[in-house]
Amino acid sequence: LRNVRERCSLGVLPHRAGDTDLSEMDVFLMIRRHKTTIFTDAKESTTVYELKRIVEGILKRPPEDQRLYKDDQMLEDSKTLGDCGFTSQTARPQAPATVGLAFRVNDEMFEQLHIEAFSSPPELPDVMKPQDSGSTANEQAVQ
Fold first, then answer.
1. Number of domains in the chain
2. Which positions fall inside the Ubiquitin-like domain (predicted)?
């Protein structure tokens, strides 16, 4: 339970797909669509379809109404995340891999893949910028 709480506090969902094989390595993913970002983890052996089931549990859209992408390449349901290039080396907790998500808009069409860029933080105020190594913040304030 503590691990689940820690993972939730980090913004990582407590759902883990394919937990049956403990020798498999975890991959950490950001599933992104427009301004929505889902952080999750799975095993390299998890299929793309299983990842769509995770998305279904969160966004309430069935797998057949989803398309997942790596870069601009659509991922096949039957392939594993490892087959698609998501490994413990390329999708780490501190640098999760990005998976694009597009939804079906009608019986025949899917929306174009669109991911909003993250906003940039404002510039640091002068008092928070790193100081010269030769003087302290107090010395600079006195000068």
1. 1
2. 25-90
Query: How far apart (Å, rounded) are the C-alpha atoms in residues 79 and 113?
Result: 20
Helix (H) or strand (E) holding 4: helix 2-9
How do residues 87-129 score in pLDDT, each as one tens digit? 999 999 999 999 999 999 998 899 999 999 989 989 989 898 8
Task: Please report the pLDDT score of residue 130 as a whole number.
Answer: 87
What's the CATH number where 70 sits?
3.10.20.90
Q: How far apart are CA 41 and CA 35, in angstroms?
A: 20
Closest alpha carbon to 111 in 119, 99, 103, 121? 103
Domain hosting 137: range is: 2-142
